[in-house]
């Protein structure tokens, strides 16, 4: 009898093994798919919680960023120095760009709310002999197709000050940092925007101090978390473009203002 029981047990195990072989990996794939769906639900819940937490802390950072901006206003040439001390940005800045950026008074990076992914980078300028704008901005948003697109403020250059202008029969115009505002060829891979948002904006002081003999900038783990968050219900103005994608416009009819005392005239 014991022998018969053992034989029956072995037969049942063999039948189960045969059934598993017949099914192949199908049932394991189905189980794996079910587990993966559960994981995706957990990941989505974690992402929503993270976005809420980041928005809350960015609101807490806002008064500190405003105070930082007020302090920077009292340090002449702060932003142009910070840009020049960044190893990658400095390679894009010509001598004329450097003088134009010396009129820069503030930088702001705004990240839009959850319902409108994207960000806006704004440069603020005092009165200068290069262009009429007091604010020049570049904005990155998701287009109707879901792809990232960019728009920029048309720069209203004073006559003869557009750095892209090529003299008649002269050599090609040198590369200018300001050409970045009109470059909308690959918004998803815009390295300049990434550097400004992730490296320069979170801690501009570290780059400003590089010119005073400080060592290289420390690693920053909070770059993405330091941007200003705009609430979903906050009004966001669309940046006007001039239609040709260049983001520049030369103004021929008016004379540029005299530069403030202590800054050079670019026409001399």
From TrEMBL:
<feature type="compositionally biased region" description="Acidic residues">
    <location>
        <begin position="1"/>
        <end position="22"/>
    </location>
</feature>
<dbReference type="InterPro" id="IPR037231">
    <property type="entry name" value="NAP-like_sf"/>
</dbReference>
<feature type="compositionally biased region" description="Acidic residues">
    <location>
        <begin position="232"/>
        <end position="253"/>
    </location>
</feature>
<feature type="region of interest" description="Disordered">
    <location>
        <begin position="1"/>
        <end position="25"/>
    </location>
</feature>
<dbReference type="InterPro" id="IPR002164">
    <property type="entry name" value="NAP_family"/>
</dbReference>
<protein>
    <submittedName>
        <fullName>TSYL2 protein</fullName>
    </submittedName>
</protein>
<dbReference type="Pfam" id="PF00956">
    <property type="entry name" value="NAP"/>
</dbReference>
<dbReference type="GO" id="GO:0005634">
    <property type="term" value="C:nucleus"/>
</dbReference>
<feature type="region of interest" description="Disordered">
    <location>
        <begin position="232"/>
        <end position="268"/>
    </location>
</feature>
<comment type="similarity">
    <text>Belongs to the nucleosome assembly protein (NAP) family.</text>
</comment>
<dbReference type="GO" id="GO:0006334">
    <property type="term" value="P:nucleosome assembly"/>
</dbReference>
